Amino acid sequence: MKMMRIHSLSSLLAAAALCAAGSASAATWTFTGSTLELPALYGAAQSTVGAVTATATAWANTANGSAGSNTVLASAYLTPQGSSGVGTSHADGETTSSPQHAIDNNGRQESILFNFAGDKVNLTSSYFGWISGDSDFSVYAYTGAGAGSVAGLTYGNLTSNGWTLISHSNETSNNNDKGFANSIYSSYWLIGAYNGAGADSTYDYFKLKTVSGGTCTDNPSGSGCGGRNNPVPEPGTMLLLGAGLLGLTRMTSRRPAV
Description:
There is one protein chain. By secondary structure, the chain is an alpha+beta fold. The protein is built from 2 helices and 13 strands. It has one domain. The strands form 2 sheets. Strands 2, 3, 4, 5, 7, 9, 10 and 12 form an 8-stranded antiparallel sheet that branches. Strands 1, 6, 8, 11 and 13 form a 5-stranded antiparallel sheet that branches. Strand 4 and strand 5 form a beta hairpin.
């Protein structure tokens, strides 16, 4: 009888622990429409889901550095593309006609930097609202200290300056859903036209419509969630645990002595 009571209590505590930890759920931030905010005239787009706001800005390797001309990342123009999402136009006089107003790697390698405020995010997929022929893309998450800036860096030294490469994806099909499963939670993510080694001979052009993933609130023990690795149980969890213990106590008190 004593062993049965101990087993029941252990099961109840385990269930409560799972409730306290939370369960990951997906959120989707959408970037559509025809207007943009204009910080420094380069443009930014915002999308808010719950308590988390994502701000998107454009970047391209248009500055010069020790590695040569057009190697260093600098601000680019974010271009709204209606229901297709957002594209970019780099600051070296790139035309805004199709397909150059998309995110591409023709001449310069263009990317979108996502800054999440309100919680860290584990991005695991994106949706390209428009593709021209090819859609190879690269994804990075910032895992360093402080803010995740890319200004003054090159694609080649991102990983030595706090950025972690999530994937270089060769997605040559027109499947608009692009997955890049990983376990990192960060406030800064960089998604752009393919910028790794071994790219195919076809330029990549796409417009980015959504990004999706979970937050640290959904998964407090997620990699990068900081002090939330040992979360305090929520009030609802404590109520559940208390009710269960009360019921177990009553069951035990009603049993005849052995």
